[in-house]
Write a structure and sequence with these properties.
3 helices; 24% strand; single chain; 98 residues; two-stranded antiparallel ribbon
């Protein structure tokens, strides 16, 4: 997939390390990426741009998530109250059995 923000980030090149496997073969493994040609934004600005973009996409993917989480707290409180009432009712019904 093409990197659509490459103009903002710039061109990166991989840094390799040579690793010997158990069977004796050697392979080159990418350790990290280094900035080769700088882009239109500095690395800190680019990270902020990507952070904002990801947060926006997370929100757009499910805008009802905030409301659902708020309602979830009330549901937990309701269930705890119901549990207490059910426990007290159970004690009342079973007190004569023992």
């Amino acid at each position: 997939m093409p990197h659509v923000l490459w103009e903002l980030q710039g061109i990166q090149k991989p840094v390799y390390e040579t690793v010997t496997q158990e069977d004796g073969t050697t392979i080159d493994r990418i350790v990290k990426l280094e900035l080769d040609i700088p882009g239109k934004q500095k690395p800190e600005e680019y990270k902020k741009t990507v952070y904002d973009l990801v947060n926006y996409l997370v929100y757009i993917a499910e805008p009802a998530k905030l409301k659902r989480q708020k309602i979830g707290g009330w549901v937990i409180i309701y269930l705890v109250i119901f549990l207490i009432i059910a426990y007290l009712l159970k004690k009342e019904y079973w007190k004569d059995v023992h």
